[in-house]
Give the backbone structure.
Amino acid sequence: GDSVTQMEGPVTLSEEAFLTINCTYTATGYPSLFWYVQYPGEGLQLLLKATKADDKGSNKGFEATYRKETTSFHLEKGSVQVSDSAVYFCALSERGVQGAQKLVFGQGTRLTINP
Amino acid sequence: NAGVTQTPKFQVLKTGQSMTLQCAQDMNHNSMYWYRQDPGMGLRLIYYSASEGTTDKGEVPNGYNVSRLNKREFSLRLESAAPSQTSVYFCASRAPASYEQYFGPGTRLTVT
């Protein structure tokens, strides 16, 4: 079945550092790709998405590009802030019954930003 | 507009006890989902419901049952809890033709 692999965490950076969190996937067909973020004590929120090859998703200074040739969707941010401390999940969508979207998640990467 | 709500927030069960986790959404979404989150494993889909009256198994359905009571509510039942079901459970919903799933705040369940 489809799967998503993220870089091992935790990741600790200083404020204003450059961030990359790697994500690769295995899928049949061409799924949509997502990054979700989970702040402490909360549920997940969609951070950004890309629905086809070469699409770039962006939000809140974060970016990720859908690379079909390398089956990757790496998350980047040029200058991180303390408020970016959270757990980040890469995910892809599979089609379920009656067209329902089923998400397959990576294991999550915990990011801590120190002031 | 409360979004996706889950009850309870925390629960401790003994092995063999049963309980139902409740989930409701007020966004008129068709699809609803139950996930479990375990350390180092991300979120895994337990069951989902594409629309009112339908439910289907996800990746890890064993030991669980679900009910899509109406369009708003989707409950998850553990008939005989086991320590392996200790986890954080998230409910989510999605509007038709939307890419985004909206998640509830989670239920932290411990089975001793």
